[in-house]
Amino acid sequence: MTLAVDKIAFKPIRDESGIALLITSVGVAFALRYLMQFVFGPSVRGTTSQPASLSLYFIDGVVRVNTHDAALIIIGGGLMLGVHLLLQRTKLGKAMRAMSDNEDLARVTGIPTEQVVRSVWIIGGGLSGIAGYMFILWKGTLGFNDGWLLLLLIFAAVILGGIGSIYGAITGGLVIGLTASVSVIWIPSAFARAAAFIMMIVILLVKPSGIFSGRSTA
Q1: Cα–Cα–Cα angle for 73, 77, 83, rounded to 5 degrees
Q2: How many CA atoms lie within 13 A of 217 on its CB side?
Q3: Selection from 45, 40, 81 nearest residue 170 by Cα
Q4: Closest CA to 200 of 150, 147, 161, 167
Q5: Fewest 10 Å CB contacts: which of 10, 39, 173, 201?
């Protein structure tokens, strides 16, 4: 599916600006969202039973961590480490970084750019699939609207980290996620996402192009 999305929606505008690609991503997300609703229906389905939990006692209270939470932390950390090793230690990762810096120069030096692009789409699709599975495992229910609820936060993380930077997206995701989670200590949980967006605005006022703007990272 990822290769089909690339060929139909993104390949014709691959040389356009990052904002154009971002807007196209929103359109593709809408299309896939309603395609899922048409095929599977709008109903929400339960997926997992209540997992076993472990209580951790702190001075101010108790924090309960279940097996799904632990799996999220371990797998998420492992995937971030895997992406780092891919970029820094493998031939494909070095080709990806070269294309990120200068695609024309990478093509002239003999890097098979189309093959690299296809590999990126396959890897990205795999990571998205794992992330979606882990989110549904943690949430316990499955519905066509689940991805849409996260989409704005994902875009906020990408913009905050710096469009075009993988490490920026990881950093932006951590900042947005931690802000939304920690903010519920002081404000109602209904405003957690608002707190994350406020944090994004504050950081962008200081660094308008994102945290990793202007750095030579992939």
Answers
A1: 150
A2: 18
A3: 81
A4: 161
A5: 39
What are φ and ψ of residue 66, in 5° steps? -100, 180
Rounded Cα gap, residues 218 and 164, in angstroms? 7
User: Which residues is 144 bridged to in the sheet?
Assistant: none
What is the spatial distance between Cα 7 and Cα 122, in angstroms, rounded to a whole number?
A: 13
- Give per-residue pLDDT as tens, 1-39: 888 888 888 888 877 776 787 788 888 888 888 887 888
pLDDT tens string 133-168: 888 887 777 777 777 777 778 878 888 887 767 778
8 Å CB contact between 135 and 150 = yes
Contacts of 32 (CB under 8 A, 6+ apart): 147
User: 177: number of CA atoms within 13 Å, CB side?
Assistant: 13
What is the rounded radius of gyration, in angstroms, for the C-alpha atoms of the chain?
Answer: 19
Distance, CA of 95 to CA of 111 (rounded, Å)? 7
Q: Are 125 and 119 in contact (CB under 8 A)?
A: no
Q: Domain residues of the chain, as ranges?
A: 16-44+143-218, 46-142
CB 180 within 8 A of CB 192: yes
- Reading the block at residue 200, the tokens are 């994004």
Number of Cβ within a 10 Å radius of residue 179: 20
Q: Which of 84, 92, 48, 42 is nearest to 67 (CA)?
A: 48
